[in-house]
Design goal:
- There is one protein chain.
- This protein has about 190 residues and is α+β, with helices and mostly antiparallel strands.
- It has 2 domains: about 50 residues, no CATH class; about 120 residues, 2-Layer Sandwich (Muramoyl-pentapeptide Carboxypeptidase, domain 2), CATH 3.30.1380.
- A 5-stranded mixed β-sheet has the order 3-4-6-5-7, covered by helices on one side.
- The radius of gyration is 22 Å and the shape is globular.
Length: about 190
């Protein structure tokens, strides 16, 4: 292939990898998805593009130290990529913490939130359901959390959560449980 040996010598000189890591491409794709044409000088975006960009006005985020209940804080539900929970979802998180998480914590000890809020791009990247309750931006009045506890087994946690999630979602998984307060009954196993 013409130029291939030249590319190898340039990579050797600069320390560039033979292949660009997949996570680098994912970060680039996220950056490009957030970027808009108005960021470049002299480029005026189309009317349609300006409407799309206006729809992406940053969502107000909750502060890290917001206390939801005696044992849960907002920052425990922030996304693993560092994105803070949308402020509009805090009330639903308080309900979930008080109605479901606190009673479970009382029975099984300390609780770890394995997954709380997920922005749409992050949820897609990890293969989450398209309209997941973890995407608080889509439905800030109902939120979700994947949980593990200090004692007991996932089957016991799910059995104890059953009466607490009468009008909500309850997912049973081998190492954790999913709970949400969607307002309609949903049950599944993963």
């Amino acid at each position: 292939m013409p130029g291939a040996s030249g590319n190898r010598s340039v990579r050797a000189e600069t320390g560039a990898p033979e292949r660009i890591p997949r996570d680098w491409w994912e970060r680039l794709e996220e950056f490009l998805a957030r970027r808009h044409d108005g960021a470049e000088p002299g480029v005026k975006p189309s009317v349609g593009r300006r409407i799309i960009v206006a729809a992406r006005i940053p969502t107000p985020r909750a502060t890290d130290d917001s206390q939801l209940s005696p044992h849960f804080q907002v920052d425990e539900f922030h996304c693993h990529d560092g994105t803070a929970v949308p402020r509009a979802a805090v009330t639903a998180l308080q309900r979930l913490s008080e109605d479901v998480l606190e009673p479970l914590r009382e029975q099984f000890g300390a609780c770890t939130v394995m997954s709380g809020y997920r922005p749409t791009a992050y949820n897609e990247r990890i293969g989450g359901a398209k309209f997941s309750q973890h995407i608080y931006d889509l439905h800030p009045s109902s939120v979700a959390a994947d949980l593990i506890f200090a004692s007991g087994r996932p089957s016991e946690w799910a059995d104890a959560a059953e009466p607490l999630c009468v009008q909500g979602g309850l997912g049973r998984y081998p190492g954790f449980i999913h709970v949400d307060n969607r307002g309609t009954r949903a049950r599944w196993s993963g």
